[in-house]
Write the structure tokens for this entry.
Amino acid sequence: METYIIIMVICLIGSAYFSATETAFSCANKTRLRALAEKGNKRAELASKLADKYDRLISTILIGNNIVNILLASMGTLLFVEVFKNTSWADKAAAVSTLVITVAVLIFGEITPKSIANDFPEKFAMFSAPFIRLLIWILMPINLIFSLWKNIISLILKVEEDDNLAQEELLMMVEEAEQEGDIDTDEGDLLRNAIEFSDLKAEDILTHRVDLEALPIDSKKSEIAQTFTRTRFSRIPIYEDNIDNIVGVIHQKDFYVGSGVTTDAIKDIISPVLFVHQSEMADDLLKKLQKEKSHIAVVVDEYGGTLGIVTMEDILEQLVGDIWDEHDEVVEEFKELDENNFVIDCNMNLDDFCEEFDIEVESDSVSVGGWVAEQIGNIPDVNDTFTFENLVVTVTEVDSHRAATIKVEKQDMSEEEQQEEKD
């Protein structure tokens, strides 16, 4: 009987070990393990390598766990049959054994070790790594059989493995790393911007034609000089006849030579400009600007007309956030008046607006101003008002036949209205 008890205790310890190891490796932060490995921690390096081959690892754990649990149940049955022989409980020995072993495995072989491993996944993974590696070697023939079986099932079911992480998964990983303190908020924002960058098109980041500072090719040099002084831009687009026919850009360093304005004709100092379609992806546009050694691209619409321009700075701001210099006028896109009232600049990105107010909007517009025009149904005018979900939106300023600023008032929704909104 003592032999049975010793074997059962060893099996219960083994069950606890395998359960904890499974939880530790599934919950361990791989980035943290790699960071420890780079600092010279050999166990972290081993744990990281084992985690990279998770299929073989989990197969070994499951095989080992099943072996010890089956052996534990068998020894338990033999023990209780021995204990209850020659008693009225003899015919119930198997049932009692099943009940006791089940409770013991649940408490000491599953719940407790998994809870502990979940609290310290990296530490337990490093502790467990040497022994589980030994078991992987020992059980390699069985693992190969299971691996072959998995491949056969995959062929039968035509399962295609997708090694590419979806954008949502990458964003979730960044959020988890931020919450766990592996990266700070600024690093998280930078990573999110980089992940979302591949979805951006030229039309999403351009400066619209109505906001362009452009001049006709027959402009006087005094007009060009005034525009450089007023805007403090280093480059100004030049067009012929109308804004839909941009012929190039004038660079400030070409316009001002020595201690004064150049004596060359304007058409002689114009630099060629890159033209791209509005659907051009931002990452492709960045490569084209780099290849052409240009800082400005003119974005054209489906009819070949000028939709706006995109600068190198516009693209970089999508990755690193707003880039300000000492001459930029700081525009506050979102201003909180009080708990329920806000002033919004209509150039604000519509997705950012929706995130601020926790609403979902179906719109083809990129900016708040475009969405406001859609909601109103015509050219916006001051004091035009509409309601969207729990928001009352009022146009407060109009510029060039479009909304420039709006006031947003949050209204409390009743429980019934909230339920209707959810439905």
Observations:
- The mean pLDDT is 85.
- Residues 334-422 form a domain with the Uridine Diphospho-n-acetylenolpyruvylglucosamine Reductase; domain 3 fold (CATH 3.30.465.10).
- Residues 414 and 420 are 10 Å apart (CA to CA).
- The first strand starts at residue 207 and ends at 208.
